[in-house]
Design a protein that fits this description.
The protein is α/β, with parallel strands linked by helices. It is built from eleven helices and ten strands. Bound molecules: zinc ion. The site of zinc ion (ZN) has 5 residues, from helix 1. InterPro entries: CBS_dom, CBS_dom_sf, Peptidase_M50, UCP006404_Pept_M50_CBS.
Length: 376
């Protein structure tokens, strides 16, 4: 995710913090400081750091449970509205998805219980809603209330909230996954409208969250539709087989010439035996032209870690590779690891439209390429 800095690795997963988070800290400190002076500002900073510690613990609840089922997590990004763990894939088994989804909120339940029973948080239920940010209430109690709010908020049955995944997992016990996702996504979008409506009359932050939930629900529905539709389909059906490649000796200038004479936007860079060494995208070329000179070797500016999929593998494997790599292209290779084609988000979307039209699926709207890119 752009605009974020790494705090290092904890238990094998990189922890990143979004730069906007620092604005949030500064804003809270300023707001508290203008009401209660320096001591209040310091207390606000301590509270917000403690809250983000709890959010991080929540994300690790998901991450470590996923790892238990053999699923890795690239990184966790802390945003002002919470944390996002880029868990590489969700398990197909509903029971596993259920446990991964519940593990996050469960961590906050444990923290809240500890704060109330061991660390002396005490709450007058009448003032619960206003407790956070109230200077007369001690930090431990405020932190306990935040954890309770985190549990309630995350259990809203809407993607990308954990409650949405819990709902889908429960539905998956009775229905197939695509159907379960569609129903869970519809409920999520309805919840988003509800939140947005509340936001209109109250907290404007709810409007942003509503938009976020709405987009995430649409994304999730498309992503699963795509994977389901690609099951049992041969990869070659959606593979681009006539395409230009760049030689490992090529320069950025030669790449630009190729860009201008084709309609392609992603160019595989292959060595003499036809093996994929990397991919140079149109954006990568533009960046390279701006930063260096046209004689620069493409090897120095291409993206190296491009995922490849065997041409005999089912299309669903290529779809999963595209969705989890965050890259716009996967290389399709033969048994000798030579490139025989590429699959991009764009031509995958084209394939889906053709497929949907030929099957007469009215409900499957053509997915825009944006919907399946950069799932974080
Ligand atoms: Zn969560």
């Amino acid at each position: 995710m752009g605009w974020s800095i790494s705090l290092g690795r904890i238990a094998g997963t990189e922890v990143r913090i979004h730069l906007t988070f620092f604005f949030l800290v500064a804003w809270f400190a300023f707001a508290a400081g203008s009401r209660g002076g320096q001591a209040a500002a310091v207390e606000a900073i301590v509270l917000i750091l403690a809250v983000f510690g709890c959010v991080l613990a929540h994300e690790y609840g998901h991450v470590l449970t996923a790892r238990h089922f053999g699923i890795a997590t690239r990184d966790i990004t802390l945003l002002p509205i919470g944390g996002v763990a880029s868990i590489e894939r969700m398990p197909e088994k509903p029971g596993q998805e259920l446990l991964i989804a519940l593990a996050g909120p469960a961590v906050n339940v444990v923290i809240a219980l500890l704060l109330f029973t061991v660390f002396g948080a005490r709450l007058d239920p009448e003032r619960a809603v206003d407790a956070v940010g109230d200077l007369k209430i001690d930090l431990v109690t405020q932190l306990a209330v935040v954890n309770v709010i985190l549990v309630i908020f995350n259990m809203i049955p809407a993607f990308p909230m954990d409650g949405g995944r819990v709902l889908r997992a429960l539905l998956s016990y009775r229905l197939d996954r695509a159907r379960a996702t569609r129903i869970a996504a519809s409920i999520g979008q309805a919840a988003a409208f509800g939140l947005g409506f509340l936001g209109l009359f109250g907290n404007p932050l709810l409007l942003f969250i509503a938009l976020f939930v709405f987009l995430a629900a649409s994304y999730e529905a498309h992503a699963v539709e795509l994977r389901e539709a690609a099951k049992g389909v041969a990869t070659r059906k959606a593979t681009i087989t006539s395409f230009a490649t760049l030689d490992t000796q090529a320069t950025v200038q030669q790449a630009v010439d190729t860009l201008l004479t084709t309609t392609q936007r992603e160019f595989p860079v292959t060595d003499r035996s036809g093996r994929l060494r990397g991919v140079l995208t149109r954006d990568g070329m533009i960046r390279a032209l701006a930063a260096t000179w046209p004689g620069t070797a493409v090897l120095d500016v291409m993206e190296r870690d491009v995922v490849t999929v065997n041409c005999h593998a089912p299309l669903s494997e290529a779809v999963t590779a595209l969705q989890t790599s965050g890259r716009p292209v996967v290389g399709i290779v033969d048994d000798e690891a030579r490139v025989v084609g590429i699959i991009t988000l764009e031509n995958l979307a084209e394939y889906m439209m053709v497929d949907a039209a030929s099957r007469g699926w009215r409900e499957l709207a053509p997915a825009s390429p944006m919907d399946v890119s950069h799932h974080k």
